[in-house]
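Changelog-adjacent note: as of this version, every example in the card shows the full chain rather than a window. The one below runs 129 residues end to end.
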Amino acid sequence: MEGRFDQGFVMGAWAANVDRQWSYQYALSSHVELNLFAGMDFGCGSECRARVIVTSYQYPGSDARNWEEATASVSFAERVGASLSWSPRGLGINRSTRTLEGWYVQPLSRATSLEFDGGTLHIGSAEYW
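Full-length structure tokens:
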């Protein structure tokens, strides 16, 4: 769910049912992840959109650690885009994380599309993709 306000301000939330937080080997007790975000969404050309947001990842009632992340993203013609995220304690661990992602969307019909995306995740000095 997302709300848009004057001058491109956006805020929203989403929730998920999870059984494990990424960095932990044990099951979470409450199985709920609540995500809250706020930021700015603005045009950067006739076919370009950019967004800068801060997201808070919350795990109410569980032993997992909450964390925050800042993200900057850009998309062209609603089909090609990239994002860069940074967190001082990403994934609920005591190390900074950086994530770089890119995507391409190919419409197939008015209601269906294929999306191809990939990225890399840096945790301290380690890198995953």
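Structural remarks: The two ends are 28 Å apart (CA to CA).
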